[in-house]
Amino acid sequence: MFSLSSSIPVVGTHDHPSEGILKSQQQSKRHGSTVPPPSGGKTNADSTENAYSPIVHCMLAGGIGGAIGDSAMHSLDTVKTRQQGAPSTVKYKNMIGAYRTIILEEGLRKGLYGGYSGAMLGSFPSAAIFFATYEYTKRKMIGEWGINETFSHLTAGFLGDFISSFVYVPSEVLKTRLQLQGRYNNPFFRSGYNYKNLTDAVTTIVRREGWPTLFFGYKATLSRDLPFSGLQFAFYEKFRQLAFAVENKTFDEDLSLSNEIITGAAAGGLAGIITTPLDVVKTRIQTQLPDIPENSSQNLKQQTLTNSITKGMMTVYKTEGLAGLFSGVGPRFIWTSIQSSIMLLLYQVALKTLDSKLSDEKKL
């Protein structure tokens, strides 16, 4: 998931936790301020709450941003999954070469966009749940309880990720298996999986492996996503602070569109690189087979991993070295960078649109 620090649209005024010192000096009371009221009184808390966008708007905007962002970057995510799930397959070693190979051999819909239905099954609802939880928790901790802003935002991000994980982890399992498989009866790459479609994947997994398999790699997924959310948030706030300084603007003004995109992309990309080893272990755990079939394209040196994150990372490092832990880092960097900037921008634009419509209705 990709957490945002503010529910205020790009064209509106902004308020950011990394700017706490300056804001406390300015005693700003503009729209959307997350500065806790000095007295912690109910009147100020209610006033702050009224200044925020409705939670339902955050849910809809987050779901829209998440679904569109995931859709735009799904093909690159497929390349990353092939590189991580089949590290010994030579034709997937190079990112551009892998992209070209998959589309030429398997096509766009069944190849590069294999597993798309599984991704969409969890994309909109999980993003909506995340943003609703994030915004509600943030407002409670800062506006009513007067807790430190940075701690509140991090806690809200972690909690949002945790609650939404009950939706997106099963979706992630289905997505990664279908991405690794590619087309049905794939003659170009044998992953060990051969599902006809999403429905067949669900029924086959539940019948043969049991429903808990849909949550296989749950700890690994959280171990990847919680640190990613925290790091992405911290980088995003710092980069925005620097961007305001570069543009010589106060925090009451808006950043340029280019810097809005750059700050989100840089934060997501850097966090993506750092958490790549965790992503590798997560992908391996969710896509590995109990027994590697003889006709599999995967090299036998790829060891079966347990649900232990630490043991999984050690196994990958011992058998494949540092390169194994960072397999797929190129596609992951590009994916997290672009997806982060798309989701951030679309979230804010959608939120502004929803808020404007609500404001117009109130005037009638």
TrEMBL record:
Solcar repeats: 53-140, 148-242, 255-353
SUPFAM superfamilies in UniProt: Mitochondrial carrier
Major subcellular site: mitochondrion
Alphabetically ordered keywords of this record: Membrane, Mitochondrion, Mitochondrion inner membrane, Repeat, Transmembrane, Transmembrane helix, Transport
GO biological process: transmembrane transport
Membrane-topology annotation of the record: Multi-pass membrane protein
Region (Disordered): 1-48
Entry annotated with the keyword Zinc: no
Subcellular location: Mitochondrion inner membrane
Assigned protein family: Belongs to the mitochondrial carrier (TC 2.A.29) family.
PANTHER family in UniProt: S-ADENOSYLMETHIONINE MITOCHONDRIAL CARRIER PROTEIN (PTHR45667)
Protein name stated in the entry: KLLA0D09889p
The organism of origin for this protein: Kluyveromyces lactis (strain ATCC 8585 / CBS 2359 / DSM 70799 / NBRC 1267 / NRRL Y-1140 / WM37) (Yeast)
